[in-house]
Amino acid sequence: MDENADARFRAKIVAGPSPADCWIWTGAIGDDGYGRFWTPTPEGGQRMIRAHRYALALVTGSLDDLDELHVCHVCDNPICVRAEDSPTSHLYAGTAFENMADRSRRGHHNQQAAAAFFRHETKQERAHKARVLRDHVRAHGYDPEAVATLLRGVTAGQQTLF
Questions:
Q1: φ/ψ (deg, to 5) at 117
Q2: Cα(42)–Cα(11) distance, rounded to whole angstroms?
Q3: Residue 137, exposed/middle/buried by CB under 10 A (0-12, 13-18, 19+)?
Q4: CA-closest candidate to residue 107, choices 98, 97, 96, 116
Q5: pLDDT at 65
Q6: What band does 116 get if pLDDT is binned at 50, 70 and 90?
Q7: Which of 144, 122, 153 shows the shortest CA–CA distance to 33?
Q8: CA pair distance 56, 100, nearest whole angstrom
Q9: pLDDT digits (tens, 9 = 90+) for 121-144
């Protein structure tokens, strides 16, 4: 991994104050709602990598280690880059099967009309929500209540049901 790229990457992260908080990516966000990061190639060009993949590669030591794997989020926040070699990590490497099983456990697989209440947002909605969150954190820093409001769509001070 390139030290200059690593420093550029780390400069685009705002970590939440508590040990369980997300680390918010404040760089570029693609049309799918996931962070994007560019690294130099040996030929002098650039390669785009999703920010959460790069974050986990910093822990594993190599992007090549992740070639055949998905990088899964335990927090359902596409711009979270909290990758650690500890139980507090929000990212982990998994197979396509493990990623789909996790998706199913979270109810993101059911496209029936009766499941609309639990259905995950579209890519466009996810991208919009991610950009609003990123822009808020850029402008105001990490405020746990505001982050929860923007991630979950709850109003300030509203109690969760579960």
A1: -60, -35
A2: 23
A3: buried
A4: 116
A5: 79
A6: very low
A7: 122
A8: 19
A9: 788 888 999 999 999 999 999 999
